[in-house]
Automatic annotation (TrEMBL):
Organism of provenance: Cristinia sonorae
This protein's name: Uncharacterized protein
Domain of life, per lineage: Eukaryota
Polar residues biased stretches: 184-193
UniProt keywords, alphabetically: Membrane, Transmembrane, Transmembrane helix
Region (Disordered) residue spans: 171-206
Membrane-crossing segments per the record: 12-35, 41-66, 86-104, 116-147
């Protein structure tokens, strides 16, 4: 496995793991509850975060599944799809992070009577915040890494297959080996670019 392909697999797997943790803690926050004045807030935002975490898990799993398909013509295999997806994932996680800061001070008030549950409420909320922040930072970093690597490719970002990033980081011997094995990915990209250009010309004539 090429180094950058392995890196993508590891990063995507970590993103999926963090999204699962985000879902678990988002579920625990409203289930465990908190102080009475925060019950409604925790219920609404907890289940909102849980729903979004499920969508994040599904989408990351889809991107992971299309992470190594050099002959695929699906839009899910394109570099641009992966970049934009992680930008959106980062924005969603950041949007979930800030509302959960509101009840943090109240939930972590250990001086208030709570039958000893304040520590658990506080821990669940803090862990949810950590997961949101981690996912936001990791997704943004992944998008930036893929984008910066894609700048070294001769193919436009919107047409490039995600596996073409592996050639940018490949050693000369690996690149030569891939060249001998045939340029399936390049031929796919060339067909895509030609088809796109042909479609644009036809629309212009109309």
């Amino acid at each position: 496995m090429e180094p950058f392909k392995k890196t993508r697999f590891i990063i995507y797997s970590h993103l999926l793991f963090v999204a699962v943790c985000e879902f678990v803690f988002a579920l625990m926050v409203p289930l465990l509850g908190g102080f009475p004045e925060l019950d409604q807030f925790l219920l609404i935002y907890g289940f909102t975060a849980m729903t979004l975490a499920i969508l994040q898990m599904i989408w990351i799993a889809v991107l992971l599944a299309f992470n190594n398909r050099p002959n695929s013509m699906s839009i899910l295999s394109r570099t641009s799809t992966h970049v934009y997806s992680f930008v959106v994932l980062s924005a969603v996680s950041a949007a979930l992070f800030f509302p959960f800061l509101y009840p943090l001070r109240t939930q972590c008030d250990m001086n208030r009577h709570s039958d000893g549950l304040a520590g658990i409420w506080c821990a669940m909320l803090v862990l949810e915040l950590v997961c949101c922040a981690t996912l936001a930072i990791l997704a943004a970093s992944t998008a930036l890494l893929i984008y910066r690597t894609a700048l070294n490719m001769p193919v436009p970002l919107k047409h490039a297959n995600i596996t073409q990033l592996d050639r940018v980081h490949a050693s000369p011997s690996q690149a030569a080996e891939e060249g001998r094995n045939g340029g399936d990915t390049d031929s796919f990209t060339s067909r895509t670019v030609v088809e796109s250009d042909a479609g644009s010309i036809k629309k212009g004539r109309k």
